[in-house]
Every structure is written in structure tokens, then in C-alpha cells.
Amino acid sequence: MSFRTVLLLLATLSTVYGALYADPSDVPRTVYDYVVIGGKPIFSSVQSTDAQFRVLLIEAGPSNKGLFDVEVPFFCTNLSPGTSLDWNSTTTPQAGLSERVMAYPRGRLLGGSSSTNYMIWTRGSKDDFNRWAKVTGDQGWSWDALEPFRKAIEHIAPPVDGHNTAGDIDPSVHGTDGPLGISLGESLSTDGMVTRTTRQLSEFPFNVDMNSGNTIGIGYTQSSISDGTRDSSATAYILPALSTHTSLDVLINTQVLKILQTGTDSGLPAFRGVQFAASPNGRVYTVHATKEIILSAGAVSSPQVLMLSGIGNATELKTNGITPIVDLPDVGQNLQDHPVIGNIFTVNTTTPTFDDIQRNATLAAADLAEWESARKGPLTQSTSALLGWLRIPDNSPIFANHIDESAGPTSAHYELLFIDGFSASVQPFPATGRFFTIATAVVSPSARGSITLASADSFDLPIVNPNLLDNAVDVAIMREAIRAARRFAAAPAWAGYITGEYSDLAAAQTDAEIDAYVRNGSRTIFHPAGTARMAPFGASHGVVNPDLTVKGTRGLRVVDASVFPFITASHTQAPTYVVAERAAHLILQAALVDTERREHELVAP
Ligand SMILES: Cc1cc2nc3c(=O)[nH]c(=O)nc-3n(C[C@H](O)[C@H](O)[C@H](O)COP(=O)(O)OP(=O)(O)OC[C@H]3O[C@@H](n4cnc5c(N)ncnc54)[C@H](O)[C@@H]3O)c2cc1C
Ligand SMILES: *[C@@H]1O[C@H](CO)[C@@H](O)[C@H](O)[C@H]1NC(C)=O
Ligand SMILES: *[C@@H]1O[C@H](CO)[C@@H](O)[C@H](O)[C@H]1NC(C)=O
Ligand SMILES: *[C@@H]1O[C@H](CO)[C@@H](O)[C@H](O)[C@H]1NC(C)=O
Ligand SMILES: *[C@@H]1O[C@H](CO)[C@@H](O)[C@H](O)[C@H]1NC(C)=O
Ligand SMILES: *[C@@H]1O[C@H](CO)[C@@H](O)[C@H](O)[C@H]1NC(C)=O
């Protein structure tokens, strides 16, 4: 390998092995170079460096290691909501969803949501990232500039059934040496019907690789799965770093309460202290960082931790009894997410679908035995074998009255996800029948929501309002997406297989009926982003600078999905890894500059 995977902030030369602590009283030091909040990937594959830094990573939840449902891809839907690995957040009543309250899951364990998500690996489009570069004033966020970071993350793993994937993925756009495996799933009998449809209906072109920068079209789903098992930031970065050559300390089962101001630095408040505790009544501990605190608690918790630390809308902080230190009204604002609805079709088949695994214990046991003995079979899949990204035509009447929020021609307005079974959020799973679902999602949404404090108590969950579909254009796009799903299902390729529309979908025919169906049946696809958005240096809006440092502070960076200035028209894990890769590079650069400055000062008379 030309590149060595190292935990960026650590010495490759260090002989001290990393250690995992499950109790804050066991942590051996009170001072580290860096303290990372949240068990997320902020590591990098960079060439080895001589720099030797001590890092403490603090994660609220347990280790991912040995958790069976985390490892088996098909069991991803068992991991949340309302489990021991979930934060158990729920939303406020959603105005755009008939005032429904939804579960808002996010992983609470090493690896964060990358350990509980559905593993779909989509990078976003060229236009998504070029828009980031434009609105942040930093060309480093452009699609082309991010190329080495995208490639450093991944390698392509073979599909478990060994089928020939030529023409189903383009290896030239992917990395070869990165620690995270991505793969295509086993072939399913419905795959051929989806690909035949792309040849029969020109509005649904086949796209060999939706991760090339141009997302538009339908193609095979790449997933963060290798050897039939989930890969995550914990399996690919944290655990290997702990067990090899690093001087990393990882503290689990411990929640960060707030970040502390430790003084001033170049006239700005410096935040280099962290307070944490294992439980609401547990002892409170403090550690300090000589260099930086890296806040990686995710798009829901990172803004909460900032606000608890006195960084946010000063008026709102005072209302909660918190003394404001930095008045940054954008903290927690600009929350973006993708609404999704499962559109269910009935099928006429004698071949088992995923529905059978849920109902037939004999089949489920056989599938499990196959997974355990050979890492093969249906349990190696997550949800969709194929998916697609599509645009509403530019001349659509929708955009006569509304702004087009998509980033450009390589970015979609909506997504189609093809699922070999019943997949709904509100309709109960029926006792009989086999199904095919075409889920539709609005992926360049106009709606904006927020994360606000419920109280100044760090153990109270924040108030989550993603505000899904509270917006006429998003509903209109969802309506068009459902019509597109119907045209797709009506292609000759499906004759004799799809026999009709199931229940609520069948009843939704007029615009008004479709809108009612959408508001009644949509939910989040679990992609919160934008709550600590990047904005140019010196801008009065935004929370972080383009180098991810928190505006108006020293010693503090945010590295997670909250920094997205606009949500990507994609699933959000791959873009978050890319943010983390570039962040690692920026942090190392800053450390080297800092070291040079100190050396210069030492030799200066
Ligand atoms: C059910 C589900 C399915 C998903 N499916 C997909 C998918 O198929 N494909 C895809 O691309 N994306 C998917 N996503 C989204 C993707 O996983 C996230 O975008 C990605 O993980 C980045 O999330 P994040 O930055 O918000 O932080 P997270 O991944 O949520 O990580 C935050 C971490 O910080 C920890 N933490 C939070 N607060 C504290 C605190 N106070 N103290 C200590 N630790 C703390 C958390 O426990 C967690 O480990 C899914 C998400 C969910 C929840
Ligand atoms: C979420 O709910 C589950 C089920 O009640 C529980 O076991 C778990 O501890 C809860 N998580 C948190 C963070 O409270
Ligand atoms: C700060 O919060 C207050 C109270 O919610 C609100 O009225 C005000 O508009 C916010 N300030 C900014 C700049 O958003
Ligand atoms: C359950 O699955 C087994 C194994 O595939 C099969 O032999 C059996 O017929 C199935 N039972 C039902 C009720 O479908
Ligand atoms: C169901 O499939 C069978 C055999 O493949 C076929 O004979 C029958 O016509 C199909 N029924 C419908 C409603 O398409
Ligand atoms: C709304 O969802 C419920 C299931 O929770 C279903 O019974 C009802 O038919 C749905 N209504 C519409 C308009 O889709």
C-alpha cells in the first residue's frame, strides 16, 4: 500500500497502544492534545507523520464490538428506534405531516449512526460540492478538490455471491486502499426487472456509477458492507487504531456535558476544556486539550453541546439560564433532512421476497445459519439493491412559482429506492402477501427546521423540529416522484410481476389525495444536516468557518453532518466521511503551522 492508514492525530511511531475505558474515573490523564466528542470518524488516511499527539475520544454509548444486530446488515432495521443503541429522540408535531410526531433515531455507540444506519453509500453530486465551495468561499470544498479525500476512505469489496459486477460499478471513480469496504449486494430476481425498465423508459436512464459526480439515473446500490458484514467508522477507523500502533484513549458510556471556556487566545474566547459524566447523578470530570476540542456529536447533539457551552443565540441561551459567551444565532438553525414514503405494490410471485424472512421462522433460521457459516445469503443485504436519482424537468410549472433548491444538473430533486418487499413507515405489515416497494424521497428540500434546547440540563434531549414537507414545493416534488414511481412500475418489464397498488397508495389518485397520502405516510430518512453550517470567514451568518473552526472562538472545531451548508442530494454518511477526511487534513496542517511557529519562537533571540 502506498498510503498507510493512520489515526491522523497520532504518531505512527508511538509504541503505546490505545486503550478503551468504560468508566471516566479510569482515564489516565487530564490533559490531551486533542479531545474528540462523539465516536465518529475524524481520522484520515494520510502519509505517516512524525507528529505525536495524545487524543481522547469520548462517546456517550457503548462499544460496537460484538453487537450481532450491528454486524448483520439485514438487521439494521432492528437497531432503532427505541433501543439501547438509540438516543430515543422524537420530533415536535410536524406541521407538514398532519401534526404527527415521529421517532428521530440516531446511533448512540462507537461509530455513531454509521454503526446503526442502513449502509447505503452515496457521495452526492459534483454540483452539491461545488455549491459548498461557492457559499463558503473555499475551493477546497469543490468536487474536484475533494477527490483525494473521497478515494482515501474506501476500497471496493467483492459481492458475497461473487457475481460479475462489470458494468454495475465503475472502479475508476473509487479508492483502492481506504479502510472502509463498499460493495454491491447479492443479485436479486427483481434486479433484472429494474434494469430492463431503464432500457424501456428513457426518462429512467441507467447510471453505471452514481458516485462519479453525476448522480442522475438508476443504478446498483453501493453499501458500506464488506464480507457480508457492516463496515462503519468504528470498524474501519476506531477499533483498528486502538489495536495497532496508536496512542489513542477511547472513553465509552460517558456523555459530554459541555465545553468550557479556558481563557482567551488572540482576543477570542478559547474553549479547550470538556466536562463529562457517566450519568445524570454521576461525578463530573474535566479534561483539557492543549490544541483543540473536536466536536463530532452529530447534527442533533453538536448544536446542543454548543448551546450548553454558551455558544448560540444569546437571547435564547439567556431564556434557558445559560450565560452567553459567543452570540451565534445560527447554532441549531438550518436543519435539513429528506422526507421519504414507501409506495407499496402487490406482486404475483412464487419466489420468496424479503417479506418471507419476517414471517417464516424456518426460512429466517436458514438465512441466519448461512450468514453465520459463510457470510452469504439475504442477511448480507440492507434494504435496496438498486436506487436512482432523478430531476423534475426545468420547464415544470413547479419552478414557475418556487425556487429550485437543487444544486445543479448533476443533483436530483427526488430519489427512488427499490425494495424487494413491504417497506412502510405507518402502514402495518400485513400477515400475508408479497410486495415490492418503490420508496420516494425529496432530496433537495426547501424546508428548514431547527434544534433548540429543552433546558440547560445536558441530559435532557434537545427539541428536534426537522419541519419535513412544511413547504408547498417539497410536497409538489414528492407528488411528482410518486407519479414517476407509478410510471416505473407500469413498464413492460413488470408485467405479470407487479399486480397492483397496495391500500393507501391505491386510494391516492388525485393531487389532493396524493398530498393527503404523502402527509399521512412520510417520515424522515434519517439525514439531519446543516445545524452548524459553514459560512465564509467574516460572514455574520453560519456557525463554523470553512476550516470548520467555530466562529468567534479558538480551540474548537465541529466535524460532522452539522457543518453541511446545504444537505447533499444523497444519503449523508459518505459526505460526512469526506468532511472528516478533509477536517483531519486541516487539523494536521494547523498543528504543523503551530509547531513551526513554536520552533521559530524557540530559536528566535
Ligand atoms: C436509522 C438510520 C439509517 C441511516 N441510513 C443511512 C444510509 O443508509 N446511508 C447513509 O448515507 N446515511 C444513513 N444515515 C445517516 C448517516 O448515518 C449520518 O448522516 C452519519 O452517521 C453522520 O451523522 P452525524 O454527523 O449527525 O453524527 P452521528 O453519526 O449520529 O454520530 C454522533 C456521535 O456522537 C455521540 N454523541 C452525541 N452526543 C454526545 C455527547 N454529549 N457526549 C458524547 N458523545 C455524544 C453519539 O452517540 C454518536 O456516536 C442513517 C441514519 C440513521 C439514524
Ligand atoms: C432508549 O429506549 C430504550 C428502550 O426503552 C432504552 O433501553 C434505552 O436505554 C433508551 N436510550 C436512552 C439513551 O435513554
Ligand atoms: C434569537 O432568538 C430570539 C428568540 O427566539 C429570536 O426572536 C431572534 O430572532 C433570534 N435571533 C436571530 C438573529 O435569529
Ligand atoms: C418457510 O420456509 C421454508 C424454508 O425455505 C419452506 O420450506 C417453507 O415452505 C416455508 N413455509 C411457508 C409457510 O411458506
Ligand atoms: C401470476 O403468475 C402466474 C404464473 O406466473 C400467471 O399464470 C398469472 O397470470 C399471474 N397473475 C396475474 C394477476 O398476473
Ligand atoms: C393514513 O395512515 C393510516 C395508517 O396509519 C391509514 O390507515 C390511512 O388509510 C392513511 N390515510 C391516507 C390518506 O393515506
Properties at a glance:
605 residues; alpha/beta; Glucose Oxidase, domain 3; eight-stranded mixed sheet; seven-stranded antiparallel sheet; 14 helices; 23 strands; 19% strand; globular; binds 2-acetamido-2-deoxy-beta-D-glucopyranose
Notes on the structure:
By secondary structure, the protein is an alpha/beta fold. The chain has a domain at 155-231 and 336-450 and 462-524: Glucose Oxidase, domain 3. 25% of the residues lie in helices and 19% in strands. It contains 14 helices and 23 strands. Strands 1, 2, 3, 9, 10, 11, 12 and 23 form an eight-stranded mixed beta sheet that branches. Strands 6, 15, 16, 17, 18, 21 and 22 form a seven-stranded antiparallel beta sheet that branches. A two-stranded parallel sheet has the order 4-5. Helix 3 (147-153) packs across helix 14 and helix 11 (472-489) crosses helix 13 (511-521). The chain is globular and about 80 Å long. 55% of the residues are buried. The structure holds flavin-adenine dinucleotide (FAD) and 2-acetamido-2-deoxy-beta-D-glucopyranose (5 copies). Flavin-adenine dinucleotide (FAD) binds next to strand 10, helix 6 and helix 14. One 2-acetamido-2-deoxy-beta-D-glucopyranose (NAG) binds next to helix 7.
